[in-house]
From TrEMBL:
Keywords: Glycosyltransferase, Phosphoprotein, Transferase. This is Purine nucleoside phosphorylase. Phosphate binds at S29, H60, R80, F81, H82, A112, S211. Homotrimer. GO terms for molecular function: purine-nucleoside phosphorylase activity. The lineage of its organism: Bacteria, Bacillati, Bacillota, Bacilli, Bacillales. One of its GO terms (cellular component) is cytoplasm.
Amino acid sequence: MIEQINESKAYIEQQLSGQLPKIGLILGSGLGVLADEIENPTVISYKDIPHFPTSTVAGHKGQLVIGELQGKNVIAMQGRFHYYEGYTMQQVTFPVRVMKALGVERLLVTNAAGGINESFDAGNLMLITDHINMMGDNPLIGPNVEELGPRFPDMSQAYDKDLIGVAKSCADELDLQLQEGVYVGNTGPVYETSSEVKMLRTLGGDAVGMSTVPEVIVANHAGMKVLGISCISNMAAGILDQPLSHDEVIETTERVREDFIQLVKKVIKIM
Ligand code: HPA
């Protein structure tokens, strides 16, 4: 795995003329527009990077955008890899390994998620304070590569307290409502049944989605500090009396993307 990471890293470094990124961004469904704000961008298609998988879902582009945002050197994934696409957990999280190898120490992970907490509304942004892995798999299963991280990584502060504090104060300054809660990671690709949503609420979940958990596990293994923001694109099944659709998810994320962009830009400036 180390060799593959280094080959990907070397390819990306070759494309860059300026500084190496220190902050990583993973942009979820409908949130990829944030990468358009990156200045002096170097854009690299996933298909050109050795060992990178390629992304298949509608609403996701498949490229890295590397450049400056708020004066910081950032690397953004415009489109991520999902477990439900058939990738292994190792493939899903490979880009996080490459980011770390490039020197990224802080990772901002975003997603679209269904709201489970009844006090939420579609269109809210939620700061992820913790997660519950319901995917029945883990990217760290298998022999541990000591150079990449410890065999038994601590996950007691998977989402960094200081970064959570930064995000909250940024939202305050912008006078922007920011919910907080626990993200539950399911495999998808189906949305949940109403009964599953009830169960997840009982278990302590506030929002549910089909990503993020694998990347955050690997980022913690690698010793990176993580901040997570969900866009509550819909209320999860059974909370409102209406069916869910991917179109609704995309429509809502488009509606709130200005708020989302403002918040992330302010956070990046400080983080
Ligand atoms: N469930 C799972 N994943 C999702 C949802 C949902 O309701 N909305 C957006 N991603």
